[in-house]
Structure formats: structure tokens, C-alpha cells
Design brief:
The chain has helices at 2-14, 44-55, 64-67, 77-89, 245-250, 485-495, 526-536; strands at residues 121-139, 144-161, 172-179, 182-190, 195-212, 224-230, 236-237, 241-243, 254-255, 258-270, 281-289, 293-302, 305-327. The protein is an alpha+beta fold. Among the domains are: 2-89, Dockerin domain (Type 1 dockerin domain), CATH 1.10.1330; 121-327, no CATH class; 470-569, Orthogonal Bundle (Type 1 dockerin domain), CATH 1.10.1330.10. Strands 1, 2, 3, 4, 5, 6, 7, 8, 9, 10, 11, 12 and 13 form a 13-stranded antiparallel β-sheet that branches. A hairpin with a 4-residue loop joins strand 1 and strand 2. The protein is elongated. It starts with a helix and ends in a 33-residue tail after the last helix. The relative contact order is 0.07.
């Protein structure tokens, strides 16, 4: 009705025809006097609407009778003053019909071509869940979505709330638990209880028009609704009196003392049919406290078929609501880590100046968020650079300075900061290796009489072994990697200091005495020659073992001639 009326007015406007406050058209629709903009509420927006209509070439009221607040048959400045006095100064209320919907009791020339009656309130009851799997396509103002439905959980009845009467007693709603796409939106709304902005994040239910207690007629012009969860709802004190069909069976109205807004409901199309009857009216589902326990079996029928529902507890009050605006929430209050720094929203994310900031990234960029290695340690930004506490830190250098970033040789090993092998990075606060190594433990680990850095086997304090690295095979005098008679000759030449190489005589052992030591006594004598000859020719063993390995050259303890023998490892 409202959409058709807007199209009608647009056509007339283009033709150069303007409605006058004195237009003579027979009144038709029901209305609430004072609800000039036909949004279901009598508030300051109606005063503004009449002012715009009379003085600013604004649109004509959908129901001129509703704008005739004092019911004198015309819409003029007196109606503005009358309504403003009622809303702001305790003046008399608009004349009937008010506050409930109805026809104009006074015959006049004003029109009411739109259905401006308030919508039902609904009291919602929990039922014993019924498993009912179903997949449906649903479209609303926020998205197109395929919803998976699994259980029926609630039933809504039209309810009288205080002085607000039931508008249509046959309109009921069945709640199906729904699973679909998440959304994250800020919704500003107002209703009789509050004017606020909330964050919604996911669809939880699909509500279907329902007939109750057959053979009552099916509600033909009632919309479907998607129920979106409200994030972090806050309860508030309110004491509405609720009276629906079940309360009348119970015997008394239900008295409420507080409400909590759990779901924001939008009109929706299921499988793109039937048409959406009212795209303007939304609902907020308030959880009610305390709750009433009342058990009754209820036969119902909706578009999915017949259901026998078992009601047990009152749960929600659905309140007609005006949606004022919808927007994406700022990055600093949307519950997401938008900049990937592990911090979410204000005040946790230091990139946020306040909850309304739309960027979690620090602005301007800091040293810990600029993609540059500012302190030259090879590490860039947070969290890679250990000098950064977070992305808002404006220095990659550790603060205060650590032992590995202070320019001092703190452990006296001649090495400073990252050049010291005890430092893992610039944030390491000890130059001493951790855990302690053989070259930094005060022990003669290889039994050569030398300890730690005094031991030739230690290259630095981080060296894990006092034993020198193996770089030669005992008996391989000519460093050929094999053991042959050529090695025997080289050892003999060393013993007798034969000329033929320099520097003599160590040149015959390729610069290492341990190459000529084959019996492990750390000296080179003819006994080493005899042992090596016995090994090469596999002489019978003089003790345990089998030839030739029983004659295998034995390294000098602690020497670097400790590579494995190629024949007898």
C-alpha cells in the first residue's frame, strides 16, 4: 500500500499537480491520529513531516486524516502546535482514533489512502524442539542467502501490551532455527522502548507466518522475518503487561520487569515468494524476565505443513521497530583483527584512537609497521623484530638496551653484541651462551689438561666440544685418504729426517704428527711403522680380533687424526 501510494504521488508531481491541505477526497483507511508519516509511531518526526508538507513542498502525508491532529477537517499550523504541545509540554493527546488504530469518527473531506495501522506486538513461547531439516533461499535488505533450517523452537502469538491492542488476532509466527552467512552490520533503530544502535553478526532464525488452532484462516498478508543476533545485548528495566491467548488460558496477564534485546528482525522473501507486504516494519525480539511456565499442546499449520507443538515457557516480546540506518561498523569496533597484528578493536589495538576509528593500522606508520629494517638487525616490523612490542612501537631497537645490543663485551670473550655467538638476536640479554658449552663450563672435558678457551679444541665460548675437529686418518701420512706402503715410506722418512720436502721433518707427515702415530702413544717411532706394515699386509693378530683390523692404526687421544679408517671404520 505504501509503495503504491508513493508511485501515485510521484506521477502526480511530474504532471505538475500538487496536493492541497484542503483536497476533497473521501477518507478510506484506518489510522492513528498524529502518525503523520505513517511509520507506526507518534513522535517528533511527525511534527517535522507536517512542517515539511506545509512549508517545504514535502510529500503529502499518506493519511491526511492522521495529520489532522485536532480533527478540525484541515491540516494546518494548528496541528503542528497541537502535536508539539502533546509531545513536549504535556498537552492533550490527539483526538480519536488514538492511541489505537481505527476509522475517522468525524466526516470530513480529508483522505486516508494508506493502511497506517500499527502492527501487532507478539509474545513468543518456547516449545519442545522439533527436528525439521529444510534448505530455503531467503532474500532481505541485507543479503541473499541459502538458509539451512533444522529445528522448530518457538511460537509467537499476537499480544496486547499495556494499552496497545491486538491488531490482527490470526497472525502467528513459527521460529525455525537457521544457519546461513554471517554478517556484521551496525543497525540504528527506535521503538517504544529505546532509540539505539546495535551490532548484528549472524542470522539465527527464520520466522514463518502460521495459522494456529485450525480451522482459523491462514494470515495471508503477514511477512516472513529473518532474526539476526544482536551482539552484547544489555538488559534494562521495563514493566510491560502482556496478555495473549495463552495468558488468558492461564488466567492472568504476565507482568514483566526487564527486557533484553536479543534479535533484530527484518522482513524477508522466502524462495522469492509470496510478495513482501511491509518492507518498513521491523521487529526487535526482547527476552522477557521473569518467565511464565505454561504447558499446552498447539496444532499449527505453516507453508511447510502441519505441526503439533508443545508450548512450555514464555520467552520473547516482539516489538514493532523503525530501522533508521544501517552501516558497516568501524574497524575499531567490529570484533575483527583487520590489520593482522593479533589485536582487536579499541582499546586493545593501539592503532585505534577510539571505537569510531575506521582503521586499526597506526597512522602515520611507525618503525614497527613501515616495512623497513630501521635498526639494521635483519628483522623487519612487529612481530618479526624482537625490539617491537607492537605495531605502534616507533623504535625497532630494544628498549632498554640489552647485553646483545649495548656495544659492550659483557662476557669477556672478545666478542661484542651480535658478533658474540652467545647472542641469538639483539633482544638477547646475555652474551654468555645458554646452555653452557664444553668451552665455557670450567671443565677439562677432553682430558688434555686444558680448559675452555685455553684448549686448542675450542674456537670460541659457544663451541660445544673441547675435542679438536677430526681432519685426518691416523696412518695416512701422505694425506691421500688411503693407507698404503707409500705411507710407510713417508713415516720412515720422517723418523730418519730424510731430505726431499720442506719443512723437515714434518713435511713427510703432511704437517701433522698424528698422521704418523699408528699405535696411539702420541709419538712417531719404528713401532708405528711395524704396526702399519702389519695392517697393510694383514698379518696374523697377536691378540684378539681378526686381521687386518686388529692392526688398525689407533689415533693419539685428543688429536685431530680421528677420521674413520677407510678399511676398518
Amino acid at each position: 500500500m505504501r509503495l503504491n501510494h508513493k508511485i501515485f504521488r510521484a506521477v502526480l508531481f511530474c504532471a505538475g499537480i500538487f496536493f492541497s491541505a484542503y483536497s476533497v477526497i473521501q477518507a478510506q483507511g484506518n489510522f492513528v491520529r498524529g502518525d503523520a508519516n505513517c511509520d507506526g509511531f507518534v513522535d517528533a518526526s511527525d511534527v517535522t513531516y507536517i512542517i515539511d508538507y506545509l512549508f517545504n513542498l514535502g510529500p503529502a502525508p499518506p493519511c491526511l486524516d492522521a495529520a489532522d491532529v485536532n480533527d478540525n477537517g484541515v491540516v494546518n499550523t494548528a496541528d503542528i502546535a497541537y502535536l508539539a504541545s502533546f509531545l513536549g509540554a504535556g498537552g492533550p493527546p490527539p483526538l480519536p482514533p488514538f492511541p489505537n488504530c481505527g476509522p475517522d469518527p468525524t466526516a470530513d473531506a480529508l483522505t486516508c489512502t494508506a493502511d497506517c495501522c500499527p502492527r501487532n506486538h507478539y509474545k513468543t513461547w518456547r516449545i519442545e524442539p522439533q527436528f525439521f531439516p529444510m534448505t530455503v533461499s531467503v532474500y532481505d535488505q541485507f543479503m541473499f542467502d541459502n538458509l539451512f533450517l533444522d529445528t522448530i523452537e518457538f511460537l509467537s502469538n499476537p499480544v496486547k501490551k499495556n494499552s496497545f491492542e491486538i491488531a490482527d488476532s490470526i497472525e502467528h509466527l513459527t521460529w525455525y532455527q537457521a544457519h546461513g552467512r554471517d554478517t556484521l552490520l551496525e543497525v540504528e533503530y527506535q521503538n517504544q522502548f529505546e532509540s539505539t544502535t546495535v551490532l548484528i553478526d549472524s542470522v539465527k532464525y527464520l520466522l514463518l507466518p502460521t495459522a494456529k488452532f485450525s480451522p482459523l484462516p491462514f494470515p495471508e498478508s503477514l511477512d516472513h522475518y529473518k532474526a539476526y543476533r544482536i551482539v552484547n545485548p544489555v538488559a534494562f528495566d521495563s514493566m510491560p503487561v502482556l496478555d495473549d491467548q495463552f495468558d488468558r488460558m492461564y488466567g492472568t496477564p504476565e507482568l514483566i520487569d526487564s527486557l533484553k534485546p536479543l534479535y533484530f528482525l527484518t522482513p524477508a522473501l522466502k524462495n522469492m515468494s509470496p510478495p513482501m507486504y511491509d518492507s518498513i516494519t521491523h521487529y526487535v525480539a526482547y527476552e522477557i524476565f521473569p518467565k511464565r511456565f505454561f504447558s499446552i499442546g498447539v496444532p499449527t499449520f505453516d507453508q511447510f505443513g502441519a505441526h503439533n507443538l508443545q508450548v512450555d515457557t514464555s520467552k520473547f516480546l516482539l516489538v514493532p521497530t523503525e530501522k533508521l540506518s544501517v552501516s558497516k561498523p568501524p574497524e575499531c569496533s567490529d570484533g575483527l583483527d583487520n590489520d593482522g597484528d593479533g589485536l582487536v578493536d579499541f582499546p586493545a589495538d593501539c592503532g585505534c584512537t577510539d571505537a569510531a576509528d575506521n582503521s586499526e593500522a597506526p597512522n602515520p606508520a611507525t618503525e614497527c609497521n613501515d616495512g623497513i629494517d630501521n635498526d639494521g638487525d635483519g628483522l623487519v616490523d612487529y612481530p618479526a623484530d624482537c625490539g617491537c612490542t607492537d605495531v605502534c612501537d616507533n623504535s625497532e631497537a630494544p628498549n632498554p638496551a640489552t647485553q646483545c645490543n649495548d656495544g659492550v663485551d659483557n662476557d669477556g670473550d672478545g666478542l661484542v653484541d651480535l658478533a658474540d655467538c652467545g647472542c641469538s638476536d639483539v633482544c638477547d640479554n646475555t652474551e654468555a651462551p645458554n646452555p653452557t658449552t664444553q668451552c665455557n663450563d670450567g671443565i677439562d672435558n677432553d682430558g688434555d689438561g686444558f680448559i675452555d678457551l685455553a684448549d686448542l679444541g675450542c674456537s670460541n665460548v659457544c663451541d660445544t666440544s673441547e675435542f679438536p675437529p677430526c681432519d685426518a686418518i691416523p696412518g695416512d701420512a701422505n694425506a691421500s685418504g688411503t693407507i698404503t706402503l707409500a705411507d710407510v715410506i713417508s713415516i720412515v722418512n720422517y723418523i730418519f729426517n730424510k731430505p726431499g720436502c720442506t719443512p723437515q721433518p714434518l713435511c713427510w707427515l703432511s704437517g701433522k704428527l698424528c698422521r704418523g702415530d699408528t699405535n696411539g702413544d702420541c709419538m712417531v717411532t719404528l713401532a708405528d711403522v711395524i704396526r702399519l706394515v702389519n695392517f697393510i699386509f694383514a698379518k696374523p693378530c697377536s691378540g684378539p680380533g681378526t686381521p687386518p683390523c686388529c692392526w688398525k692404526p689407533i689415533p693419539c687421544p685428543g688429536s685431530t687424526c680421528c677420521l674413520p679408517n677407510p678399511i676398518c671404520p
